[in-house]
User: Fold this.
Amino acid sequence: MNTTITEKAQTKKPIQPRFELMRLMTGNWISQAVYTAAKLKLSDALLDGPLEAPALAEKLNVQEIELRRLLRALESLGLFRNLGEDRFEVTELGSFLAEDRPDSLRPLALFNGEALYAAWAQLPHAVTTGESAFGRAHGAEIFEYLEAHAETGAQFDSVMASTHGAEAPALVDSYDFSAFKTIIDVGGGKGSFVAEIVEKNAGSKGMVYDLPHVIDRARAYLEERGLSARCDTQAGSFFDRVPEGGDAYLLRHVIHDWRDPEAGKILQKCRAAMNPKARLFIVEAVIPEGPEWSSSKMLDLNMLVICAGQERTAAEFNTLLAHNGFKMEAVHETKAPRVSLIEASVA
Ligand SMILES: C[S@@+](CC[C@H](N)C(=O)[O-])C[C@H]1O[C@@H](n2cnc3c(N)ncnc32)[C@H](O)[C@@H]1O
Assistant:
């Protein structure tokens, strides 16, 4: 049926608040449709070129009619394109869901659509009690859960690498780390941040410090990047100790996992390991003070869901650092989307 002029005029009307609220509350429909495409490897199946729906359904081992419905919904969001005659192709947007590319967002779609999705359903619990929603949903806090569930653990590492891994080159491009000879990545995960710094600065050596079950994966990653000789690894908990001897200590996406008492303990262990001239670099989203939209405000809720953690404003970082033996020197804007580099010296 053709759209009438009256209908066209109506679509230009501002969305009424009630409908706007409905659009907001059903945002999960969109994320779960995207998750389903990732889970079924829809984008991967179309990477070699367009396919007709029956062939695509057979390749993916799914129902043809339901597949067309999923494709229609995702086409309206720009992920796939119907070329006519029942043939479909993946768009540039949809292609980021394909598994086999270094900047793939498939791990994030899977983690967000599975373990994290169940956790977000428990946000009321987190707001009521201050406890993590993840713990309520899964009966274990995130890092214990990841240790016990190797597949989700590897998925989480890939999420970190694909979301924050792309961040590392932009960070290294935004700040000159060449003055630092020994750089320790505390809670470094695979070590993609320190690896990037060491790769760009021939005179620097690095170390990744993380929990024992993570450090094996860091070792493998550094070997893969050909950096084993210049990047050491050490297993341990930053609540017990942090290795000494660094000129620079990195805490990327670590402090936001914790509330102030625990975050303070981590900072104190770093402080105890640092010589008076060493510098501390925290990489996090910094929440703006005003009422405007900022993804950091949703990320803050996500941290509450995942581990009862939090994002912080610059003033909150200043206070946290000051209470734990540091002086905040600067909040550097970076070329990496959404994150700042907070530089602190020993007070
Ligand atoms: C959100 S991830 C960030 C990883 C990495 N810094 C990055 O930016 O990709 C938090 C890291 O903290 C580590 N972690 C959690 N508890 C820890 C502890 N007690 N001691 C050392 N590392 C810990 C986790 O294993 C994980 O690698």
Notes: DSSP finds 19 helices and ten strands in the chain.
